[in-house]
Specification:
The chain has 2 helices and 8 strands. The strands form 2 sheets. Strands 2, 3, 4, 5, 6 and 7 form a 6-stranded mixed β-sheet that branches. Strands 1-8 form a two-stranded antiparallel sheet.
Length: 184
């Protein structure tokens, strides 16, 4: 997804695009690995403006994916929506050297600034980064998913499996019946 700087006029440049996930290498890899099956193309909306030698790009990206629940292993569909703001500059500001008073110096990338060269800006990395960050770390088909039985592997969302509750074992089993008396 390329923005040509000559297309950004005084009022800015507004773009609305529908792009297939396979135009984005990181998303294509997630799809190929089966981690996320993209069931809708990416709906991308951006507004680019020039400001003092920099280009400020604000936008949103939306899509839908099929994921596997980390508790019950059932597939489910989830929509992903993300907004972003990135500033592109030909020359990134240098970090000041000599901060000896224990302060942490933020780099330009930490502030959402990226370098570009030439007369075009490629938004591919920024867009795919937003989609990846919008994906849940531990996908759940629903918040109260019960998962699978640890003994027989039955889906507990469908009902009880008939297995006995597993006895507590290990080194803390001796504390199972331990009671503490309150003293006034």
């Amino acid at each position: 997804m390329i923005i040509d700087l000559d297309d950004i006029k005084e009022r800015g440049l507004s773009l609305e695009l529908i792009e297939a996930f396979d135009h984005f290498p990181a998303l294509n890899e997630l799809h190929a690995d089966g981690e996320a099956v993209f069931i809708q193309p990416l709906d991308i909306r951006v507004m680019a403006r020039k400001f003092e030698g920099m280009v400020i790009v604000e936008g949103s990206v939306a899509t839908a994916v099929r994921l596997q629940c980390c508790r019950c292993l059932q597939e489910f569909e989830q929509s992903l929506d993300a907004t972003f703001s990135v500033t592109y500059a030909r020359h990134l500001p240098d970090a000041e050297a000599g901060a000896d008073d224990g302060e942490v110096e933020l780099q330009a990338e930490d502030l959402g600034m990226l370098a570009f060269e030439g007369d075009q800006i490629d938004l591919t990395e920024s867009v795919q980064e937003q989609v990846v960050m919008a994906m849940p770390f531990k996908p759940l088909c629903r918040e109260d998913c019960l998962g699978l039985c640890s003994q027989c592997g039955a889906d507990l969302n469908a009902g009880k499996c008939g297995c006995r509750d597993q006895e507590m074992g290990g080194k803390f089993a001796a504390l199972k019946d331990f009671k503490v008396k309150k003293t006034d």
